[in-house]
Design goal:
The structure holds two protein chains of two kinds. Chain A has four domains: 1-67, lambda repressor-like DNA-binding domains (434 Repressor (Amino-terminal Domain), Orthogonal Bundle), CATH 1.10.260.40; 69-124; 131-192; 309-437, Beta-Lactamase (2-Layer Sandwich), CATH 3.30.450. Chain A contains 19 helices and six strands. Chain A has helices at residues 6-16, 21-28, 32-39, 47-56, 61-66, 70-82, 93-99, 101-130, 132-157, 163-191, 195-202, 206-213, 227-239, 245-264, 267-276, 281-288, 292-300, 344-347, 404-409, and strands at residues 311-317, 322-326, 356-361, 367-378, 387-396, 412-414. In chain A, strand 3 and strand 4 form a beta hairpin. By secondary structure, chain B is of the alpha/beta class. Chain B has one domain (4-121): Rossmann fold (3-Layer(aba) Sandwich), CATH 3.40.50.2300. Chain B has helices at 12-24, 35-45, 61-69, 88-97, 109-121; strands at residues 4-8, 28-32, 49-52, 79-83, 101-104. In chain B, helix 2 packs parallel to helix 3. Classes of the chains: A alpha+beta, B alpha/beta.
């Protein structure tokens, strides 16, 4: 859909810059009537003309050709929909992002923070509901309060209590008051957040942020490395991330997965084979005779190149909890879970070791090639089923490396990102309502 | 013949307060501090009302209530449940099991005594 809106974006940007159609046409060296056709999406535009217009409008040509990050658009719309009482111009979200990218990024960041806080609140609520210590402490506290309230009432309302009994009631009050104070202190200590836990919650994405800053390619883990060296290099990298112990384990796990694919599929040789097989993961797995998920990881972690960085990756466990995510510009991923249940990554869990390939079509009309496979991360044993992990590799269909033949043969699946921002209201897999409907 | 009440409660200071309140009203009472032993007392003393805590050692208040309701002689025995477990699900479970009145701790003395009289008079 974004390609058909190039003209609309040009018009919006021109108006925002307060440049007349005639003025822009003159600046770019085309006729005003031709620019009018472009702006109404009746003429295609690309190449030099697009670059010239983008320069005249002082905007990145990529924004004009591709529009704003679809993930960002979805998140801004979701933020607006979840904030009751705020009347926002949802229909102009893309224009807003184009005109005020800094504020849009700020809203996304704030919304992310709110979501993390919501998750934390939910976790704390679950902890309180299921915490045996808290249940026992509450019972003790209520018992103490009962004694104090009832005994105080007796002492204040009865003037004819024997002195011996009066003394006993006072002693009871003292004992219960002390017990109440002690229990309250213990509850406070129990729920006092440790610095470690707070860091862990706020740095949920730290390893992904670190990898993103390295363009998802780590020289430190590439090349021939002895396994022991790899372990120490991973430790060094994680040390440099300044993260909590809670997140450290997760970071080591992710970097170890990276190191494994780097060791088993050396990047130089892999690139040659990848080009030979049109970057088709199924053909590469067959060629290397290696597990498909390793090929996925390798394809998603290639050296920076204008084409090679176009693969996204998502990995989850059997409960669909997200273990690792590498998003693409216009393919947003869930941070924890709750993505579209129709994504192949979830379908793959019903048939472990059998890869699924599909051309997935988003509500916006954008298409992605997706490959997914699940595997037993830990083997099963009698009475205890094995633990599944599912991995999905995905890429846009317009990248130069796409194997056109295999793309055309892929079955088409219509999906969404998340139910709350998915307009497919008749979808049978819908979990909850469409927030923007 | 005066009415009698059995207090089944494991917190001694709450027993002491309840005892004083009942005594002041001229109501006879007995006490039991665990759920298991109370059934024998009920069998032998035949109280007119049971004030029952939910969290008890050995046998909890719900089990005591169910046991009473499964015994022909005590199906109609008034039971006032007095508990710190005041969530909706606890109240519903008690009502489903046949409690006569559900009160949460901490309680107001006046309200408790008024309810005791009402249940004894029914």
């Amino acid at each position: 859909m974004s390609r058909t809106l190039v003209g609309t974006r040009i018009r919006e940007r021109r108006r925002a810059k307060k440049i007349s159609q005639v003025g822009l046409a003159k600046q770019v060296g085309i006729s005003a009537s031709y620019l009018n056709l472009i702006e109404h999406n009746r003429r295609g535009i690309a190449g030099k003309t697009l670059l010239t217009i983008a320069k005249a409008l002082e905007i990145n040509p990529r924004y004009l050709s591709e529009g704003a990050d679809q993930g960002l658009i979805d998140r801004i719309k979701k933020a607006a929909a979840k904030t009751s009482g705020a009347e926002t111009e949802l229909g102009r979200t893309e224009e807003f992002i184009g005109r005020f990218p800094g504020f849009a990024a700020l809203i996304e960041r704030l919304f992310d923070q709110v979501e993390v806080k919501d998750q934390t609140m939910q976790a704390l609520s679950d902890k309180m509901s299921n915490d045996p210590f808290f249940a026992e402490a509450m019972h003790l506290m209520l018992s103490s309060i009962t004694v104090i309230r009832s005994t105080t009432d007796i002492l204040s309302s009865s003037s004819d209590i024997q002195e011996e009994r009066q003394q006993r009631f006072l002693s009871n009050l003292m004992t219960e008051s002390e017990r109440l104070s002690k229990t309250a202190e213990e509850v406070l200590q129990h729920f006092e957040p440790s610095g470690e836990a707070l860091e862990g919650e706020s740095d949920e994405r730290s390893v992904e942020t670190f990898l993103e800053s390295k363009n998802y390619f780590l020289d430190e883990l590439e090349g021939p490395i002895y396994p022991l060296d790899a372990a120490s290099r991973i430790e060094e990298l994680v040390d440099g991330m300044a993260i909590s112990n809670v997140d450290r384990q997760r970071s080591v796990r992710i970097l170890s997965a990276y190191a494994e694919c780097a060791e088993r599929l050396p990047v130089e040789a892999f690139l040659g084979q990848a080009e030979r097989f049109g970057f088709n993961p199924l053909l590469l797995a067959d060629h290397y005779q290696m597990p498909l998920h390793l090929i996925f990881w390798r394809l998603a972690h290639l050296p920076p190149h204008e084409d090679f960085s176009q693969f996204g990756l998502l990995e989850c466990d059997g409960s669909a909890a997200v273990l690792y995510r590498k998003a693409l510009n216009n393919f947003s991923l869930p941070r924890y879970s709750s993505a579209c249940p129709l994504w192949p990554i979830y379908g793959a869990m019903s048939q472990p070791m059998h890869p699924i390939s599909a051309l997935i079509v988003m509500p916006s009309g954008e298409q992605f090639m997706a490959y997914a496979v699940s595997r037993f991360h830990t083997p099963g044993r009698p009475g205890v089923p094995g633990q599944l992990r599912s991995t999905m590799l995905f890429s846009g269909v317009n990248i130069p490396m796409a194997d056109r033949l295999s793309r055309d043969m892929l079955p088409e699946i219509t999906v969404g990102f998340q139910c709350s921002v998915c307009p497919r209201t008749a979808c049978l897999s819908r979990r909850n309502g469409y927030l923007l409907g | 013949m005066s009415k009698s009440v059995l207090i089944i409660e494991d917190e001694p200071f709450i027993i002491e307060a309840l005892s004083f309140l009942l005594e002041r009203e001229g109501i006879d009472f007995d006490c039991s501090t665990d759920g298991e032993g109370c059934l024998d007392i009920i069998e032998s003393r035949r109280p007119d009302l049971v004030i029952l805590d939910m969290m008890l050692p050995q046998m909890n208040g719900m089990e005591v209530l169910q046991s009473l309701r499964n015994t022909e002689a005590f199906k109609a025995l008034p039971v006032l449940m007095l508990t710190a477990k005041g969530q909706k699900k606890d109240r519903k479970a008690a009502e489903d099991a046949g409690v006569s009145l559900f009160m949460t701790k901490p309680f107001a003395n006046d309200e408790l005594i008024a309810n005791v009289h009402r249940l004894l008079d029914e």
